[in-house]
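Quick one, T. Sequence first:
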Amino acid sequence: MADDLDKVILESLEKDDPNLLRAACIMSGLRRIDAAERGLIKALGHKAWQVQAEAARALGLIGSKGAAPFLKRLLKASDADLRQKLLAAAAGGKADPEAKDEAPPELRRAVAVAINRLDPKAAEEALLAALASDNVNLMGAAMAGLANLEAQAGRERMIELLAHAEAAVRRAAATGLGKLAESKAVPGLVKLLDDPDAEVRREAVIALNHIKDKGALPALAAALEDPDAQVRRVAAIALGNTRLRQAPLVQALIRGLADREPGVRQACLTALANLKAGEALEAAAALLGDTHEAVARQAAVAAVALEQVRTRPDYEGA
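Structure tokens:
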């Protein structure tokens, strides 16, 4: 079965349809199909940048050293300016601000990630050196770059920086670790939910949403009582994304329907619908008369969805 699937994937790499080709690139990387190298390198020249990006990611995953010259070509990088262009791509900026024909930032980032997988020394060393500095802005840029490169190096240092004295550093560390979905960071991120800085607390919630560790759910539910409305709103979104219909989470979200901020009420409505929490139907329907039009509209959407849950329930335990 596995060999048959690999054969289908390799054949699909020869197709012209961008959707088939993109899917084949993704599967080649996921399955680490070394024989896909030729087809993936060919896909780097496809007219659709989305196909190019997936081909680059896959070549990085299979460890294709032979793809390095082709990847550098996409970045328009020579050996002399490779590090500069990798760092710019990792930061989401342009290596040459005057250039008008650079590839889309998503493609440049995918290429940078692939090159970094093939040769971590190309950019990681500079970022790790910056991470060890005392300059707050430099540290933040380094963490963003390492996260965008999906680097393995530097994660322990970033976890340590969750406790840094500067709020900007704590915030950058939370953001980076969230992008990396680093599960070892969960205890430190949960501690940040009590941080005195609201932006730090918000980034900690967003990071936990990316990591999706069940052990953090009680803390996320408690964040619905945070004094800052934006923290409460992203906490509601995070709980809705769990798709876990657990009584403590549902009850916390139902309480959130009485929040003084309309954005929080709206997020709680969406979350309850995502959780298929039929028991929240009446509480959601009560907001049909909300004075904020967006909340009332979301209440209507949630009420319809939750009524369907009541009348057409899932299999028990689903």
